[in-house]
């Protein structure tokens, strides 16, 4: 049985998930959004940063998200930023399908991550990710435009937001341009930790 399609992102209180400029994609705004992630034991394990780290619900959520994911999909903008920022052993450890307009051979990294470049649309990328994921779920990793494409196409089953207590005023808004007349949401879960609020929603179609 095929798994679910989901995304999970950190978001500021005013709705931003990334800076506007690609030059700043791994800069201050991203660091502030992800500040809840860095101390966690699973984050340290996954990036081979050594022992230690916090355990608790934040750590559990990171681990659960990783373990449910059998393949990921991302846009070219996110890949271009990550290509220079990720360690040699990229943190996905699954196949990753990059939605792009350019043909490129697969890029295999140590640790089980292989990036496949898909130049015939978001549905094709998802079909390939589903086949690779098997019974596990497919994560739409980002960025914002790619997530929005899948939401508006009715291809997302659920999503989770880690709502960070920061305000940015500018950047990439998660739902800028969403087809709100066609999307319904049902809250599945709401949890909080000392650093963020975790919100999970099931996505339906009107």
TrEMBL record:
InterPro entries named among the record's database cross-references: DHFR-like_dom_sf, RibDG_C, Riboflavin_Biosynth_HTPR
Residue span(s) of domain Bacterial bifunctional deaminase-reductase C-terminal: 5-194
Recorded superkingdom: Bacteria
SUPFAM superfamilies: Dihydrofolate reductase-like
MF term (GO), any: 5-amino-6-(5-phosphoribosylamino)uracil reductase activity
One Pfam family per UniProt: RibD_C
GO terms for biological process, alphabetical: riboflavin biosynthetic process
PANTHER family named in the record: BIFUNCTIONAL DEAMINASE-REDUCTASE DOMAIN PROTEIN, DIHYDROFOLATE REDUCTASE FAMILY PROTEIN (AFU_ORTHOLOGUE AFUA_8G06820)
Protein name, entry field: Deaminase
Organism in which the protein naturally occurs: Actinophytocola xanthii
């Amino acid at each position: 049985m095929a798994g679910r399609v989901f995304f999970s992102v950190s978001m500021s209180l005013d709705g931003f998930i990334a800076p506007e400029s690609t030059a700043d994609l791994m800069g201050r705004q991203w660091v502030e959004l992800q500040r809840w992630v860095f101390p966690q034991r699973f984050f340290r394990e996954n990036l081979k940063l050594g022992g230690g780290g916090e355990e608790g619900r934040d750590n559990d959520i990171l681990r659960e998200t990783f373990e449910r994911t059998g393949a990921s999909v991302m846009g070219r903008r996110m890949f271009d930023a990550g290509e220079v920022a990720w360690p040699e052993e990229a943190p996905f450890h699954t196949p990753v399908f990059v939605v792009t307009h350019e043909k490129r051979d697969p890029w295999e990294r140590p640790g089980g991550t292989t990036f496949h470049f898909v130049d015939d649309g978001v549905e094709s990328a998802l079909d390939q990710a589903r086949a690779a994921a098997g019974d596990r779920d497919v994560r739409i990793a980002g960025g914002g435009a790619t997530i929005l494409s899948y939401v508006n196409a009715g291809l997302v089953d659920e999503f989770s937001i880690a709502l960070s207590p920061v305000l940015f005023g500018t950047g990439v808004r998660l739902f800028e341009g969403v087809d709100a007349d066609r999307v319904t949401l049902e809250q599945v879960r709401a949890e909080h930790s000392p650093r963020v609020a975790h919100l999970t929603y099931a996505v339906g179609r009107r």
